[in-house]
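User: quick one, fold this
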Amino acid sequence: MATRKVLKKLKKHKDNKYLWFLISTGILAGLIYFSDPEKFLQSIRSADPLLLIPALGFGLAMFPAWSYVWYRVFQKSEIHMPYRKAVRIFMAGNFMNAITPLGQAGGEPLMAYLVEQNTDASYERALSSIFSADIMNGMPPITFILGGTGYLLLFGSLNTFIIQTVYMVLLVTAVGSIIAYLLWFESGTIEGSILKITRKISQKTGKGKELVKTLEEKLEKIEESFKAIGSDPKYLLKTSIISHAGWLMQVFNFVILMHALGYNPDFTPVYFVVVISGLANWSPTPGGSGTYEAAMATLVTIFFPQINFATGLTIGILFRLSTYWPGLILGWFALNSLNGEVEKK
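Assistant:
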């Protein structure tokens, strides 16, 4: 039954999936056209193919790291499964995120159904655990940007772009930290506020009593899950270190791609390009496609003035071909294998 729910929701997204991938492809085609197609093709041809293999290796290495973050969060919220299955569920979830028109956050409800059907966990516990894992995997860009800014403040110089980025990151950090603190260490605060507002609306309208009762039961399960996850701060800290290691794999990938195109970049600008580009994952296209490559190409030209936009776009596309697209293909196989297992039960 649960499998049918997932497949039904996937089918519901089918038309939108093709539309959004068409839009993403259109964005990329437009970028190549306006950036000078000849320069783009020239930079593609100049890439050293032997260096693309280790770049792909680092691109794939981040998936086991981020999957392990999921695994640890699941264990803490008492969703028991082998690590190998956690990897497959993470990869399947990565695929589902890519077929929704809401960027990185679009597939979470579908992921929760996938966890529910493959474990004995409730949907509410699965969703709260996935959201917690997302928070953990979303921390590295913030800490890396703040750390890199501190380094430049002490040993380098800050330009206007970096300063503006830091202001934005500080705002996101403040809001995100408050939400994470309330969910993990003051469980019930946000859930209680949602329930309070719902009750008031129900009392004023005289409707929705059953909805309030159902919501109360679901929020209670969600609260219990967040409380379990936040019960051991040291456990969360260790999990966060693993997530940061996954992000470093992307940095190594980018450095190798730069060398493949004949550039020997300094670490600091690479650090900022990769981390800031990652924010484009949250753009409203499947997996951030199109906007991610555009963001990376723009950042490359800002931090490496000697590189033109066409070459920057080449780097962005090669980066995605060795990080995002392999995960998408593996995720499709993972989703089908998981659904096949459930059908046999």
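User: anything notable?
Assistant: The first helix runs from residue 2 to 12.
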